[in-house]
Amino acid sequence: MENIKTGIDFQxxxxxxxxxxxxxxxxxxxxxxxxxxEAYLQxxxxxxxxxxxxxxxxxxxxxxxxxxxxxxxNLKKSLDSVLANKKMHKMAIQKxxxxxxxxxxxxxxxxxxxxxxxxxxxxxNEVEYIIHRVEDITEFAVMKQKAKEETDAxxxxxxxxxxxxxxxxxxxxxxxxxxxxxxxxxxxEKIPITVNADELDAIAVGLNTLxxxxxxxxxxxxxxxxxxxxxxxEVEDYAILLLDKNGFIQNWNKGVKKIKGYDIDxxxxxxxxxxxxxxxxxxxLPEKLLEKAVRKGKAIEEGWRxxxxxxxxxxxxxxxxxxxxKNNVIGFSKVTRDLTLLKEAEDKLxxxxxxxxxFSYSVSxxxxxxxxxxxxxxxxxxxxxxxxxxxxxxxxxxxxxxxxKKMGNLIDDLLAFSRLGKKELTKTDLNMNELVEGALxxxxxxxxHQAKVEIKHLHxxxxxxxxxxxxxxxxxxxxxxxxxxxxxxxxxxxSEKKGDKIIYxxxxxxxxxxxxxxxxxxxxxxxxxxxxxxxxxxxxxxxxQRILAKHGGDVSxxxxxxxxxxxxxxxxxx
Amino acid sequence: xxxVEVEVLLVEDNPSDxxxxxxxxxxxxxxxxxxHVKDGxxxxxxxxxxxxxxxxxxxxxxxxxxxxxxxxxxxGIEVLRVLKADLRTKKIPIVILTSSKEDPDIQxxxxxxxxxxxxKPVNFESFLKAxxxxxxxxxxxxxxPK
Lengths: 574, 146
Known about the structure:
The complex is a heterodimer of chains A (574) and B (146). Chain A has 574 residues and is α+β, with helices and mostly antiparallel strands. Chain A folds into four domains: 127 residues, PAS domain (Beta-Lactamase); 104 residues, PAS domain (Beta-Lactamase); 75 residues; 149 residues, 2-Layer Sandwich (Heat Shock Protein 90), CATH 3.30.565.10. Chain A contains 16 helices and 20 strands. The two termini of chain B are 23 Å apart. Chains A and B meet through helix 12 and helix 13 of A and helix 1 and helix 5 of B.
């Protein structure tokens, strides 16, 4: 149809319009399709020749597979309202599926539309045509629908979850209660398992297993801890206190009550200096001990302490510093022993020793005075009246003097022997060759002998010069004495290193001794020879043995009657 | 006799030791002017001129005192302490006679200012020699400070 006025081909123009247009001619009850835009044909997969002149609903029926399809009725209603009201009507978004051409497999395709129906009135103000314009919003609608479905699914899921939580709130609270008990090492309660066998049940089973394991471990730990605690607690012979880093009492055992007499609540939180006598507290002894324990790890001290009843006891105290992982001092353990009995015994021993010492001096003084008189008066008798006595008288007088002198020597030797007990050792390096030669030189002055003395190279020793010299003098003088009656007396002195000791030997070819009596050699006043054979008091070797024992060494002897003897003594290298 | 100048004062409670000492000094003609007292109390009376020695004067001091340590009543240490503490008597030479060189009192004696000590040997001959030597030294060789 060509418009003569303008010369514009409106039909072509309309059909090419960018939009989905359909022109309907009201033809009750249907609407006949009289014009259609190209875009509309494409959107609905139809052809112009197939739809022009046909009824709208004949061409676009409802999708028979969609039971909710209401596109036809909605559109009819809208078109009817346009006819009735002669006004444009904008429809809500419609789901109005299109028929797929047979060439594409037939059936329907989902489509969503936003339709607008507007009337075209003629001069009589009647509805001549209705322009049906739509927009294909399928893509948007499908997306929206999908989003809606997803949101719905999430909501449903959330609803399910919150319902689950709501329904299981009690069970969860129950589990939390049990867990709370775990934190205080109470594993006795189990979480009940429901028939649901749900997530909570899975958690419950896991926790129950865990708690059983923890319970058995905790039990073992507790038992071991209790055993240890009981052990410390039950110890009565040691007072064990735990002090904080300032010396305040935090823990204790039964020994505290037994040794110090205090009940536990009387001392808890007090400073441990309460056990010290006032002088010790004034001199800051407790603080000094803590300080020393911090510095050296531990402090050991002995002294008098006060019991609750005010009596004193002699305490042996070991204070040990306790550290955390970072080596900070966090407190002290204080172990106290009551050594009063030991201390008393020690004091008694000291007293007895002092008495013995006094006795020694008294022996020295008082026994020697009458001896001096006996010897002196015998001498006066000899000097003033010797001429009046015959040979036998003079012999008797000599015997008196000889015995007085002998007793004097016995007393001197005995005193020397007892003195050794209390003598402190002063160890120095000793050149033994020099020492032996010096001793021999001195002996040569007082002892007449013909012995040949061979001194080999001697290892140096470590010992008290005076005492080791005494050992050498005694052994050497013995060797000289007991070899004095053989034709060619020979004395050999040597040494050898054996392990951590040096062994020195003094060998002679003299009178020797019977090995059966070797044990008697080193006893005080023990002699294997009579005075007629060899003079002596029987103290020399006892002194030798005592000196060597004090040095950590020893002495031994081998001998054969009339063949000689060898005396060996050892000294530790250090 | 109290006022004669005494050269040796022997303080010795043991009569035997005293006799032996005197005999030893006599042998060397050193006991001509010797006085023997039997304990420390008497020794102090003698030196200070008091008690039964009231007719003596402290200035009339002996040339040497031979002092035994172990004596009843006032012992040798006490005598020594008193004499060495008194300006009038501190210059008198005092020789201690002791039975043992182990005597712990010897140390004390030296601290108190003793001049010498002699260990009384059991052996009479040694004793004789020891006493003679000390008598010779203190009476003949040593010039007492005036």
